[in-house]
Specification:
heterodimer, A: 444 residues, two-stranded antiparallel ribbon, 23 helices, 57% helix, B: 576 residues, five-stranded parallel sheet, 45% helix, transport (chain B), membrane (chain B), cytoplasmic vesicle (chain B), Vacuolar protein sorting-associated protein 33A (chain B), Sec-1-like_dom3a (chain B)
């Protein structure tokens, strides 16, 4: 069944809902029911408020003529009993538990106690604000969630929004309960009104923002996010919300474009590496990776170029280099990897630098099965000697190990390492040559 | 009867029987053959209370999982829905009821709300036009479920969120009700201690409920001497750190639900001789973990590094026992050996299982990443570098490790620093949002609200004071033969358990200053007992304390409490 918010609203605000009745198996008043009924039905004709209070109940216990909303189920029995003839014979054959109790005798604390035990109780007699608040106070001190909810439903229906909010503002427990209740039944509108009233602006903003998760259509979601910009978030969060909107906006464009390119079948990168998923709603870094993978060479002007993303979202160098590296390494584009770290200094000399440690570069290269020569080059750039040795040994970059031990003048280690290289290999020869060299002053 | 529930100082079988009796009564109310439609979430906790055999005794012939559209055909007189009071489940139930095939024999519908009925749910059923279709609509207050001889749980998955994020007191009300049930069965608890806002609320509710209970005085001789109520948010640190006990690590890596764990089947496939390898089982291996298993009871609370030696010793003992068959010469001796076989075989099976589990855990704990993570955790807990952006955490985000892992570390840093400097916080937030998605603005906001990840206010870091006064970080920890509760985290003593320890000896007056720094009030209440029931402690007999964590507890904390009770030889029961 589709329970749209609007329907919900309408129902709660205009239906003839009364204080809820639990099954009552041993209502000791049942002996008095005849006389009470007579007296009470008189009372109802006299009352000005809420005409048509009586809830008509059919033989099966279903409310007769209950409001049917579009799309709601209707039980067969409902349909069968929906005849005018039956609608005025409610009391006969009605399940015992549905008897309304219109007695005047119950004080707020008694009422609340009865509600807690699940007994039938009408709250209608609490007419004045004073009475209603007392009822609420009693309910709250009882700590029973069901009772508090029942009273809140009653107050929500019989008090204006402003008065309800004003009174709850100073009653923390009831207020929290109301918020929880509104969230549970999905009454977003009233919830936001409440936050606005309480001047809980940040919560208001977040509560509104949260709704975007319920919107599946990307364009609709984008439009919704636009409405979130300018809401009273904290300064930091405001920037993030703006970014969220901008990102989705870009993603929609990229997605449409790429889907078109892919189906046209002319672009090599898409042919060789078909896309596994849409880029919509992916995090920023994932989007950057995608862009470095499929649109690496594009100029700054296009929405899908990595540089554009970097500039628009102010992605720090570190993050950018890491992501680009991961993407290019996956494509085994070693030249691109090289270019990432090569900078020309003012003399025109090239030098390799990285905003991240080179050990990270090595790890990512290794993860992508880079050939040993490439790995070796970057292991060599690791500054910390221990780390360098560690990595070189781990990834079998023999030359680096050998050279490092040579530089450290550590004969023992070099000798130990000899057993790790293949017999008769060039590396073994190299080690032997070094070991027998008289020019090196070994320290051990 | 569940044997393992009777081993502790408190016989929890009494509670279990009482709870089973209520279930039986309800089933009998719906006379005739029946089928139960289960809210899947409940099957776990119920499994601890009643097996299918009990249900069968009460004419339960079929069981189904709650799903949309039409109910499966079953030739039963009654259909009973066992559900939590959640609105979305009501929609499904309504669908089931309304699509009932009227051409078939009529079936009576009933509904059992666990642990409470809810006004909103019944209203929803009414709106959907099905409320009147139910003959029996009741609640089954399964508040406290016995998990082991000294452990009870409410298994309330939303409790922390409700209590500390939304300020909703529903689970506190359940806790109070559960405690009233306990007192009805085990006697009034004479002294109640507590720390935290929620603890205060629960104590108030208990006192009020007692006042309103118009029945006769409770004449049961009290089993518990003390009740200690602790808010989870008094100690947010402990659940963030990686547990290092055997049971704790099983939970960290595989997750323990209702005393069951699901493990990768490959390690447990029976070794088959001959070629033609049989199909490896594809379904996870499910094991029950509780103190009924001797070996498990022995190793569960040990630091993982001490488990290996226990297992190898056990292997030798069991081997030797099997070798005894060569020494059995007389008929009498052979008979004796054979009679012990089942026990020995069970022991051997148990050893095999736990050896496999220990191997699985070792694969994780010896990995480089585990070591790096632990190092960072321990640095934070000992107060090192908690005020700057941490490289390891940055790397984890950059490599997009699991978000939970990252959040635990970042929150740990925040708690150990009494909140992060704004710049550091903003930096982490930005990295997280860019890597995991902007929608996590909501996640981060919730974490801040719960006090787990927040900016430092007042520029003061209180953690060092707390750490030093309560001796939370112990450098000289002995994992093999521990002398202090800090062994459960290899150096860090769980704050919550430290508070329990100090309460019993020398008392909380000695840490007044620290208690004031920790959130929420601390208090003491006495519940009067009729004169005949006042307890006189025998010399050498120690007090039995019920420790109640409001909002969840870790296995490591449970282990620490058990360790404490062995130290002082006082019984402890824990609850969540």
């Amino acid at each position: 069944m589709n329970r749209t918010k609007g329907d919900e609203e309408e129902y709660w605000n205009s239906s003839k809902f009364k204080a809820f009745t639990f099954d009552d198996e041993d209502d000791e008043l049942s002996q008095l029911k005849e006389s009470k009924r007579a007296v009470n039905s008189l009372r109802d004709f006299v009352d000005d408020d809420d005409d048509d209070d009586l809830e008509r109940v059919s033989w099966t216990g279903e409310p007769v003529g209950s409001r049917t909303r579009p799309g709601s189920f209707q039980s067969l029995s409902d349909a069968l009993s929906d005849t005018p003839a039956k609608s005025y014979a409610p009391e006969l054959g009605r399940p015992k538990g549905e008897y309304r109790d219109y007695s005047n005798d119950w004080s707020p604390s008694d009422t609340v106690r009865r509600l807690r035990k699940g007994k039938v109780c009408s709250l209608e007699r609490f007419r004045s604000l004073q009475d209603k608040l007392q009822l609420l106070e009693e309910a709250v001190s009882m700590h029973d969630g069901n009772v508090i909810t029942a009273v809140l439903i009653f107050l929500k229906r019989t008090l204006s929004k402003e008065i309800l909010f004003r009174e709850l503002e100073v009653r923390q427990i009831a207020l929290r309960h109301l918020i929880h209740f509104l969230k549970e039944i999905g009454d977003q509108k009233l919830l936001l009104d409440l936050f606005r009233f309480l001047d809980r602006t940040e919560e208001l903003a977040l509560s509104h923002y949260r709704e975007h998760l319920n919107i599946q259509d990307p364009d609709k979601r984008k439009e919704f996010l636009k409405t979130c910009i300018g809401l009273p978030f904290s300064a930091e969060d405001s920037a993030h919300i703006q970014d969220h909107y901008t990102l989705l906006e870009r993603q929609i464009i990229i997605e449409a474009n790429d889907r078109h390119l892919e189906s046209a079948g002319q672009t090599e990168i898409f042919r060789k590496h078909p896309r596994k998923a849409s880029i919509l709603n992916m995090p920023l870094v994932t989007t950057l990776f995608y862009s470095c993978f499929y649109h690496y060479t594009e100029a700054e002007g296009t929405f899908s170029s990595p540089i554009n993303l970097k500039k628009t979202f102010k992605i720090p160098d570190k993050q950018y280099v890491l992501t680009a590296l991961a993407a290019r390494a996956k494509l085994r584009a070693w030249n691109d990897v090289d270019a990432l770290f090569t900078t020309k200094n003012w003399l025109g000399y090239t030098k390799k630098r990285a905003p991240i440690g080179f050990h990270r570069v090595v790890e990512i290269l290794h993860k992508n099965n880079a050939p040993v020569q490439i790995l070796q080059e970057y292991v060599n750039l690791v500054e910390d000697v221990d780390t360098k040795l560690n990595l070189a040994t781990k990834f079998k970059c023999h030359d680096v190990v050998i050279d490092t031990y040579r530089d450290l003048k550590d004969r023992q280690q070099l000798l130990a390492y000899r057993s790790k290289v293949d017999k008769g290999s060039a590396e073994e020869e190299k080690i032997d040559a070094l070991l027998s060299s008289s020019q090196i002053r070994w320290k051990n | 009867m569940a044997a393992h529930l009777s081993y502790g100082r408190v016989n929890l079988n009494v509670l279990r029987e009482a709870v089973r009796r209520e279930l039986r009564e309800f089933l009998d109310k719906c006379a005739g053959s029946k089928a139960i439609v289960w809210d899947e979430y409940l099957t776990g906790p119920f499994g601890l209370i009643a097996q299918y055999s009990l249900l069968k005794e009460h004419e339960v012939e079929k069981m189904f999982t709650l799903k949309g559209s039409r109910l499966p055909a079953a030739d039963v007189k009654n259909i009973i829905f066992f559900v939590r009071p959640r609105l979305e489940l009501m929609d499904i139930i309504a669908e089931n009821v309304l699509s009932e095939d009227r051409r078939g024999p009529t079936r009576d519908f009933h509904i059992l709300f666990v642990p409470r009925r809810s006004l909103l749910c019944e209203q929803r059923l009414k709106d959907l036009g099905v409320l009147g279709s139910f003959i029996h609509r009741e609640e089954y207050s399964l508040d406290l479920i016995p998990f082991d001889g000294d452990l009870l749980s409410m298994e309330s998955e939303c409790a922390f969120k409700e209590c500390y994020l939304e300020g909703d007191q529903t689970s506190l009300y359940h806790a109070a009700k559960g405690l009233m049930t306990l007192q009805a069965l085990y006697g009034t608890i004479p002294q109640i201690f507590g720390k935290g806002e929620c603890a205060r609320q629960v104590a108030n509710m208990m006192i009020r409920m007692k006042r309103e209970f118009t029945g006769s005085q409770n004449s049961i001789f009290p089993v518990f001497d003390n009740l200690l109520l602790l808010d989870r948010n008094v100690d947010l640190l402990t659940p963030l750190a990686t547990q290092l006990t055997y049971e704790g690590l099983i939970d960290e890596i595989y997750g323990i639900q209702n005393s069951y764990v699901k493990l990768p089947p490959e390690k447990f496939a029976p070794k088959k001789q001959g070629d033609g390898a049989k199909d490896l089982p594809t379904e996870a291996k499910k094991l029950q973990l509780n103190s009924a298993e001797e070996l498990y009871a022995e190793i569960r609370d040990k630091n993982f590094n001490a488990v290996g030696s226990v297992l190898s010793k056990k292997a030798k003992i069991i081997s030797a026992a099997f070798e005894e068959r060569h020494n059995a010469k007389t008929v009498g001796e052979i008979k004796q050996f054979v009679s012990q076989l089942p026990h020995m075989q069970a022991a051997r099976g148990s050893l095999a299982n736990h050896t496999s589990i220990a191997e699985l855990i070792k694969d994780v704990t010896t990995s480089e990443d585990f070591f790096d993570k632990l190092t960072v955790e321990q640095e934070f807990m000992s107060g090192i570098d908690t005020d700057k952006v941490n490289n390891y955490i940055e790397d984890c985000i950059a490599q997009k490790h699991s978000l939970i892992k990252v959040l635990r570390l970042v929150c740990l840093q925040s708690v150990c620093n009494s909140g992060l400097k704004q710049k550091v916080l903003d930096y982490y937030k930005r990295e997280i949002l860019q890597t995991y998605g902007y929608e996590h603005i909501l996640t981060l906001h919730n974490l801040e609200k719960a006090g787990l990840l927040k900016p430092q206010t007042g520029g003061r870091n209180n953690y060092p004071t707390i750490r030093k006064t309560l001796r939370l970080w112990m450098d000289d920890v002995n994992e093999q033969n521990p002398t202090d509760i800090s062994y459960v985290y290899s150096g860090y003593a769980p704050l919550s358990v430290r508070l329990a320890q100090l309460l019993s000896r020398p008392g909380w007056r000695s840490i007044e200053e620290v208690l004031r720094i920790l959130p929420g009030p601390h208090f003491e209440e006495r519940q009067p007992l009729p004169t005949g029931l006042q307890k006189k402690r025998q010399p050498g007999e120690n007090r039995v304390t019920l420790v109640f964590f409001l909002g969840g507890v870790t296995f490591a904390e449970i282990a620490a409490l058990r360790f404490l009770s062995q130290l002082e030889d006082g019984g402890c029961s824990e609850e969540t």
